[in-house]
Amino acid sequence: MKEIKSDKGPIIQVKDLVKKFGNFVAVDHLTFEVNKGEIFGFLGANGAGKTTAIRMLCGLLEPTSGALRVAGFDGYHQREEIKRNIGYMSQKFSLYEDLTVYENFRLYAGIYGIPRKERIRKTDELLRKLNLEESRDKLVGGLPLGWKQKLAFSLALFHNPAVVFLDEPSGGVDPLTRRTFWDLIYEVAHQGVTIFVTTHYMDEAEYCNRVAIMSEGKIVALDTPAALKSFYKTDSMDGVFLKIARNKE
Amino acid sequence: MIKVDNLEKSYGNQKALKGVSLEVAKGELFGLIGPDGAGKTTLMRILVTLLLPDHGFASLDGLDVVADFRKIRTMVGYMPGRFSLYQDLTVEENLQFFATVFGGTIEENYHLIKDIYVQIEPFKDRLAGKLSGGMKQKLALSCALIHAPKVLILDEPTTGVDAVSRKEFWEMLNNLRHMGITILVSTPYMDEANLCDRVALFQNGSILSIDTPKNITASFAKKLYGVKVDTTAQRFECVGLLKEFPGIESVFSFGESIHITTVQQNVNEISVKEFLNQRGHQGINVEKIDPSIEDVFMELMQNEGN
Amino acid sequence: MNQLLGFVKKEFTHIFRDSRTMVILFGIPIIQLMLFGYVITTEIKDARIAILDHSNDNVTREIKNKILSSGYFRLDANLMNENEIDPIFKKGNVKEVIIFERNFAQRLEREGTVNVQVIADASDPNTAQMLYNYTNGIVQDYTKKKYAGFTIPLQIKSEVRMLYNENMVGAFMYVPGTMALILMLISAMMTSITIAREKEMGTMEILLVSPLKATHIVLGKVAPYLLLSIIDAIVVVCLGNMVFGVPIRGSIFVLAFLVILYITMALSLGILISTVANSQQVAMFISGFALMLPTILLSGFIFPIENMPYPLQLLSNFMPPRWFIDALKQVMLKGNGLAYIWPNVLILSTMTTVFLVLSIKKFRLRLE
């Protein structure tokens, strides 16, 4: 099982992926690929199976059947390697609120085994880039929401993962910060990191290279936003989503 | 129906409400629009008498939130920020409980919740914890309504729920308004503002603007253009380029297009399109558009910042 | 009233749907009782001993007989010489070795004194002490009966020790104490958790923004647990009676009244705790440690109050379980009625009222 070394080409490969909990089929034969450096949107109602699918992609859950490769590692037998090569930003940011900004960096570095010198260098660099230098020794709990978002994102990237999973990263954040955040996402994707994002903000779906819409465990649509809008004859992703939901009924 | 007069509230050092005032008329559907941390939840908690303000006054139907809190608690229907019904009781048991606690029965006020409840009635013996997000909302709304409140106060009822369920929820709210119930709703989704009679834009403990959605968008002082590009990859680059166009004040991604604002004459559909074409981007479409609430909000935010 | 009933109905539903609560309410008390009753017994029965008899004459045989037929001891081995003593202790099965010196009977008759050496395994000093006492007592008794005029000097503790030793009636003491502990744990802990859970889950917000008064909520929370604790208490008393032979010499009604009073006290204490705890874990922690430890250590459950240093004796007066255990023993073992236990009842009632009033007062009608 060798790592994928080519520059282009799929970094996530999923074929007929299934996850059952007892009799309940949470994920029902998913098939798709995500390329390196792509911003891939993953949409769908709560309970559609998104979280279960993401957990398998992160190496947190073993699939019931089907093929899964993430960053060149197998989703059944190499889950630990997957975990080491992906980053994850959860919905309410998963930061340690009663540690300082700097201490959070140190903690994450420790968890991922980043050597001390490198950790110090990267932390300083990131703090400068995010304009968080002055908040270095402030408790994270006291930071405004937008700063926490930036911080959480940076921590997810700290160990240079190949893929970053963002689970509703903009929940409740103000519109300005949301956009600066997406600027950040673009920059990072430009540098070759693959972004896998779920969101309920339909305008964010437009910012993705491609979008997959899940419903009841299956993918019911997968294409670029432009192609989807053209296919469903509507001029927004919001419209696409609505049409798909109506088709179901 | 709801009067708020210069409310202030702090948590330790943080000032959550910096002197907020507003009025909601009877039967109005009023929206509090703003991101997390803006102060919407604090304001609502004061109105439902769960918190005491530091300064200022507030009243519901003439009853003061501090002095008359017991009376207010009999006539307000409250849906707090996260799902807070009993996960280990069934749909029907939850509804039954809340009806009883308010001294009534389900039958008395069934007509109020009928349209909502029929959607979840097939699941009435399912445990509330096992419902989907959209159904939980409907249940929570039914429980808030079952005692025929005069005022409904809903704290971010559509957060974290998919777009379709959100739309359905607002349709339900509209129907309720026609029954004469005053509704105060908060939401971080700017597009939902258009569905309200009037809205207050909330940011950092203060109100940036209160008016009907139409008036708010009409107050937008600058010219607004929407730039449509072909591919997502193009967008990133175009945003960067447009930021360098002299005369363009702000550049922001807005879903399928890029919004640019300006007050200058030299910036128009043709000049912008040419600018981008010259830098190697084809398939560009530029047109003048009407501002949305989000455009106004961001403008106001930036002004605050300055 | 309807509101209260509706609330109580909801509480029962929560309890019956939560398998963990059911296990705690019914499973654990029974297990604990069994444990305390059977395992942690410090009675002496069939304690294994070895005997090294250098004489083997009629006197030593009579003494040995008496010792071994007492029911307290069981002969594990007859040793041949001193060298065998060490190894047999090391093996760990034997707790005591009794050594009779040579020419035992003759020495006794001629010199008037003779030595019986007792070596006890003092790695468990309490047991060792008791084993020695029993042994000594039997020997003394033998001597008294057989040789009225003689004395045999041994390392002696007086007979008084044995009578005073409560452990001779182990289960009788443990069952009431265990009951106090278990009921306290369940009633106080369960109730404190249930309110803390409402706060943690967020349902408390909705309860507050309703016509429900603090009294409704508090009483509504207490009622189901009261009923279930009573059932628990009945189970414990029956088990104690049928399995361990603990008698119920007093009036059943007085017993019932006492138990209900104690449970109510524990429940209101639980409510009080929950008004200060914001999460279930905190509630569990406070009720577990702040209640359980004092109950075990200071209530007279294991360590007699009379033995404690004076300041601790004073402190124990503030422990509700102390009054309950005392009254319970009186009713169950001595058959005393209200005429004797009224001070306990008065104290417990006062404590209960104080807790309830405080809970209702402290019950925060708002979120902060």
Q: Write down how many β-strands of chain C occur, each being a DSSP E stretch of 2 or more residues.
A: 4
Contiguous helical run count of chain C: 15
Task: List SSEs of chain C in N-to-C order.
Answer: HHEHEHEHEHHHHHHHHHH
CATH superfamily of chain A: P-loop containing nucleotide triphosphate hydrolases
- What is the SS-derived class of chain A? alpha/beta
> Would you state the CATH class of chain A?
Alpha Beta
Q: Which CATH architecture of chain A would you pick?
A: 3-Layer(aba) Sandwich
Number of domains of chain C: 2
Major β-sheet of chain A, in short? 6 strands, mixed
Order of the strands making up the biggest sheet of chain C: 2-1-3-4
* Gap between N and C termini of chain C: 28 Å
Please give the order of strands in the largest beta sheet of chain A.
Answer: 6-7-8-3-9-10
- Work out the strand percent of chain A: 25-35%
The number of helical segments of chain A is: 9
What is the overall shape of chain A?
globular
Mean pLDDT of chain A: 86
Which oligomerization state do the chains in this entry correspond to? heterotrimer
Envelope shape of chain C: elongated
